[in-house]
Specification:
alpha/beta; 23% helix; two-stranded antiparallel ribbon; nine-stranded mixed β-sheet; 6 helices; 257 residues
Length: 257
């Protein structure tokens, strides 16, 4: 009897036309049955948003090389929900892959990331999930190193699983595969965005604002995601959705009545 292949749900936040999506499908195809559910446009920095005040649309826009592709007007988290409860209803999903994102999701960027929100959503339901990102924001970014190192990493997750309700935030440096020094298990770096809202004027004379900024690392320790990327290591960070500051529960007991 033929062995059942793992069922892999793929999503992203860069939309159905992103080059990073093609790279993720390339990673996943040799490892199992692949189904893609992605936004119909760029949904970067959408965080954990879901659609509640308008209808969700879902289109099977192509079937290619054994992979079924769907797109929706929803967010990355909507994509996971639609994948679980509509496209693959009644089937057990063995792995959720999100990305490959154009741009890193290290340090505080993790909070804003639609890519990682999709992985965290899967972790809610105990589906092993991995978000992959490349430190290159260009549409024509070279994902060859991500494919080279990402596939064996994903294969290990399929084989060994992940702890319950934990997903992985995997960030790749912008270097060729031969210049990657290795893989580091990291923690989230303490960093902050220095932001500015630039005032501009549209062709009709109306003001609008464009968000810009730069990231400042506030620590230099070697166990952080930012250190790993700066030194050409792949950063693998375990992520949980429990945001409770457990270490301060006792500290704040003075507030109890």
């Amino acid at each position: 009897m033929e062995e059942k292949r793992p069922l892999i749900l793929v999503t992203n936040d860069d939309g159905y036309a992103a080059k990073g999506l093609a790279a993720m499908v390339d990673i996943a195809k040799p490892l199992g049955e692949v189904v893609v559910v992605v936004p119909d446009r760029v949904r970067s920095a959408s965080g954990h948003a879901i659609t509640m005040n308008e209808p969700l649309r879902l289109e099977n826009y192509k079937n290619e090389d054994g992979v079924a592709y769907y797109r929706t007007n929803g967010t990355p988290v909507d994509c996971v929900k639609l994948g679980e409860k509509v496209v693959l209803r009644g089937r057990e999903i063995d792995l959720l892959l999100s990305g490959v994102n154009h741009g890193a999701n290290s340090s505080v960027s993790l909070i804003y990331s639609g890519t990682m929100a999709a992985a965290i959503e899967a972790a809610f339901d105990s589906i092993p999930a991995v978000g992959l990102s490349l430190l290159d924001y260009m549409p024509d970014a070279d994902f060859s190193a991500v494919i080279h190192y990402g596939r064996p990493l994903v294969e290990k997750v399929l084989k060994n699983g992940l702890p319950p309700h934990i997903c992985l935030n995997v960030n790749f440096p912008k270097v060729p595969a031969e210049d990657v020094k290795g893989v580091r298990i990291t923690r989230q770096c303490h960093a902050t965005w220095h932001e500015d809202l630039q005032e501009r004027t549209d062709p009709y004379g109306r003001k609008y604002y464009w968000l810009t900024g730069w990231l400042e690392r506030l620590e230099q320790e070697e166990d952080t995601c930012e250190w790993a990327l700066q030194h050409n290591y792949i950063s693998v960070q375990p992520v949980q959705y429990d945001m409770t500051a457990h270490q301060h529960i006792e500290t704040l007991k003075f507030l109890e009545l």
